[in-house]
Amino acid sequence: MDAQGRGRGDDIDPADQWVFDPNTGTYELRLDPGDAPATQPAGRKGPAPGRGRGTPRPEGGPGTPAPGGGTGQPGGRTGQNGSGSGAPGRDTDTRELPAQRDRRAGSRSAPPGGGAPSRRKPKPKKSTKKKALYWTSGALGFVLVAGCGGAFFLYQQLNGNISKVDVGKENPAVKDGPVNILVIGTDARSGKGNQGYGDAGSVGHADTTILMHISKDRSNATALSIPRDMITDIPDCPTKKDGATRTIPGQRNVRFNTSLGQEDRDPGCTWRTVEKMTGLSIDHFMMADFNAVKELSEAVDGVEVCAAKPIDDPKSHLHLPAGKSVVKGEQALAFVRTRHSVGTGSDLSRIQLQQQFLSSMIRKMKSGDTLTSVPKLYDLAQAATKALTVDTGIGSAGKLVDLAKDLSRVDIKNITFATVPVLDNPKDPATVVLDEAKAGPLFQMIRADHSLSKTKEKKSKGTSDDKKVPKAPADKVRVDVSNGGGPIGAAQETVDWLQNSKAAKLSTNAGNAPTKLAATRLEYAPNQADQAAALADWMGLPKSALKKTTADAGPKVPMKLILGKDFKGPGKSIEAPTKTPDGVQNVNADDQNICAK
Fold this sequence. Notes:
Keywords: Membrane, Transmembrane, Transmembrane helix. The chain is of the alpha/beta class. About 25% of the residues lie in helices and about 20% in strands.
């Protein structure tokens, strides 16, 4: 099939028929298999010989170009029967295809016979900046918007590349608020290109995990790496297989990487583990394997990395000189896997290499070299879709493009990579534990949608939810308080404080919450907004803690205040910090001077 889907085979790659015109900044469809468009006679341009639909016409027959570029047929329509229109009842459109316009020509010469010159003005040239912006939505955007049937053909092909897992949650591909995407790199040894790495019997654990938080206004993003050897709790998680749903029991005090693969856990289990740990609601996940690193680095023709000293790691087979190098394929995979020859030799040192590699790859993907190269974009789209396993909410090329376009609004200088702060585990030196003193404020900062980058955030234009709501009087505030992670007795302490200090006599102790929460949450109905405003003001709750339901509540239905792990005491503000906590490792994705030490 050719780029217009007309049933031509010719072993022509549809992507190769799109030609970039540097004068217009757009891609044009070239139907000639040669290196240049077919030469046309001077004057009005007719169709290239032999390119019409249907059976090719014999030389000199109807439809043969006349001197000066005409077709020899009035109106430019020629049927196979030689008449000016297609034969009645024929199901094949035999009209000549219009010739590709010569956009380099500044003007059109008048056609033979004294006709008036074309009134169509040449399109203005696009600036270099606009050319880049045209492609910033990513490789998938290219295949969908490049044009016509060729895009449909590639769209269908890319759809077939994508693997999906139903994790029991299906969120829209694009939404107005902040977006949280869980990126998982699995160490599965099955599948193409994955053999020969690490433990042959691995079930595919969460070897590399990054929580990507994109701000509501799309001005910034935080990529939070989670150490695989961190000891944590894994909650119960439902999995779907062969049409049946099975709940896998949770575990306490186990390595984070066992949230995937172990006991047949799927990405939904890692999803729920991260939500419980951070208090953030995840929207989507993307999972890739070893081969993805090789294929994507090849697709962009290599990624630049830097080493402060020569690296010679016999375990990962990485051999690099000091200074900057370009890695791709096997060497790129070795770079993101190495750890014994850099830093402390731990997984934390490897995380920093991965952050350097991913930052450089993002810069490469957004560069003019990639954004204006059809072969690179095509290869990147193929590699990305073949490498990914995603949730059903983004399980098609169209949905991935919508998401890519939305997220591409983030400037690379406002993307920050950080690592969840941890401490050595005194019970097992091969593992680490969460550093609560630093991790708590960091998670709180991200939940509040604050940027870790040092650049200024865009000022929010505000929404209807941001308008000030009048506060209800104390005797009208009705709330049930439950303990979902605070100290023992926190719920009763809060109720006593509300009744005695704020005269909120309709507050009651609802006991322990059914699930633990990292962040305190106030659930209220739309018609309880005034009560929520009063309670949030008294308790010092941030906007991120307020969760409005969809339906109004009855006159005696209370709001629900669940005290989370961040609860400090009634009336004590839990407003999130606006600066990155001291001691939290972080780097800017636009920093090109980072070298592995």
